[in-house]
Amino acid sequence: MRGTTSGAGAGGATGRHWRAGFLRGGIELRHLLRNPKEMSGHLTNVVVALLLVVYVGGEVADTATPMSHLVLAGFAAYLLFQIGLVNLPQMLVTEREEGTLLRLRATPGGIPAYLIANGLLVVTVAVGTLGLLLLAAAVVADGPLPRGAEGWLTLLWVTALGLLAVVPLGAAIGAVLPNPREALALIMLPTMGLLVTSGAVFPITSLPAVVQQVASAFPLKWMAQGLRAALLPDAARVAEPAGSWELPMVALVLTGWAILGFLLAIPLLRRAARRESGSRVSARLHKAARSGAVPA
Amino acid sequence: MTGRGADTVIRARGMAMSYGGRDVLRGVDLDIRRGEVFALLGPNGAGKTTSVEILEGFRRRSRGEVDVLGADPERGDDAWRARIGLVLQSWRDHRRWRVAELLSHFATYYRRPRDPAALLELVGLAEQSDQQVERLSGGQRRRLDVALGIVGRPELLFLDEPTTGFDPRARREFHTLVERLAREEGVTVLLTTHDLAEAERLADRIAMLVGGRIRASGTPAELARSAAARAEVRWTGDDGTHHRERTRDPSRLVWELHRAAAGPIADLEVRRPTLEDTYLHMVQREEGGAGAAGSGADVEDRNGTVSGEVSAA
Fold first, then answer.
1. What is the pTM of this model?
2. For B239-283, what is each residue's pLDDT tens digit?
3. Which CA distances in Å does A238 have to A20, A203, B194?
């Protein structure tokens, strides 16, 4: 019997995966930018954030920092959180249903390329949205920008670590949720709950202690706190629950979630890919067609 | 049905699958040779898709030995995958992509891909190359799936119920495409279908899968011959009673009837069952539940030919 050794060596294969992944990510990004429906979803978030910044008045505690700056930092954190934990799972569930994952599973090197492409897409959308939000707020509503090299550095690492905390987790969620319709309902409720309890949009000290403790187990609170550290003047830290930015804790919690996310995402994605087959995809499509979600 | 070395692309022995105590496949043997178009023919629920998914490496079998292109599909690596192409029933993926863009992208996953533009020409989608995938008709979409399935120059192509839901014209175009692939490109094709006419038209060999078991296999001509082998002779006797008898030698029976009779025999009729009669009969028996637990001995014999009673129409 002939063996199956006609493939390239490991090095060549990895190079091809990255190339295919980058190509794929680029094409997907182009399609996203040309899709008015999806783009309006992301742009609406930015507009809502800008309106909040314009309409929120007052100052943070006893400082000269406008309350609107604190709200903007929190909303920016929420946008990153939402892209990782709402948009990404939805995208994965939809692509599982349509057979994209199966197609790539049937293609040599398809799954690595798929993961690279989607990671790239999510990071680009997240960084793009964040950049757009900060820039628009600064131009339109005198919004905050990082102060000095240290502020920019904080913005950079909090964003990077925040994405590492939510993107693998979002991928894990997207690998297990049943279908795009139910997925949205299942994700949105806890997300909104965290948005309220994490002190992302208003100071967390005004919430009961128990709620604060629960919320501080999740990444959103720490992402918001980290972005406040990057965007607000140092004096504003008196409004924080601990009276400081607690940056080491921000790093620790986000790293913890990143590790947990990877530990969950790798086996769950592998399982999702392994379970894909033609009959599974058609069963899901039939179900979707019956519920009127896609044409039969 | 003997497979020898590298000429056998797919070999299965006793391939079986049970889900939760229900046997979907009850020991299937297959030998598919390089370059042939092989049809797995059977009604819905016969186990065709399960068989194909086991061979594609997408499903773990419960029992049996399976060898596809020299490897166990459960352990097929990327190099093995690259030698296989798939066309499934219900792909709706990459809807926003443009036709040529999608095909060119999937070409990058292979070491020696076909030229995407030439391939679009081959499957008759050159005019649609700038169109969005979601705007294609059902037949066009399936032809794009074929293009995607063969862009990496696979040695083996799986087509799972490829013409389900097609209108007659789309079906004919698709058949022409599969014939070209097989004859001109030498691709080995495993096709599943519940349509006997499709299997007869496309396949070099057919295996009839009913109730998780292969009930008959051979070339369309062999199957037709063995289906016709047991003819039905009907006549009306002198006393006005209707008779009907099944025989492998209708000529002898008719001769004996004539010798016994005083004159002409009333309403004499010899019917040779077609392959379609036999197939429908098997399917009906299965759907009636009678064959589900039975051995199927009366419709199957060891050397892979088909026989069986055919109910009078």
1. 0.82
2. 888 998 888 888 999 999 989 888 888 899 998 888 888 888 888
3. 49, 11, 74
d(CA A200, CA B258): 100
**Of B5, B59, B77, which has the smallest distance from its Cβ to A1's Cβ?**
B5
Average pLDDT, consecutive stretches of 10 residues, N- to C-terminus, chain A (296 residues): 42 80 95 88 88 82 83 92 92 90 91 93 94 93 88 96 95 88 82 82 73 88 94 86 89 96 92 80 74 55
* ipTM of the prediction: 0.83
CA of A224 to nearest chain B CA: how many angstroms apart? 35
A101 Cβ neighbours under 8 A, 6+ residues apart: A92, A95, A111, A114, A272, A273, A276
Chain B neighbors of A16, CB-CB under 8 A: 108-109
Chain A positions touching B107 (Cβ under 8 A) are none
Domains of chain B (ranges; CATH) run 35-45+77-222 (3.40.50.300), 228-299 (no CATH)
Counting DSSP H helices and E strands in chain B, the numbers are 11, 12
Give dist(CA A161, CA A167) in Å, integer.
10
B158 vs A: CB within 8 A = no
For residues B116 and B90, the answer to whether their CB atoms sit within 8 Å is no
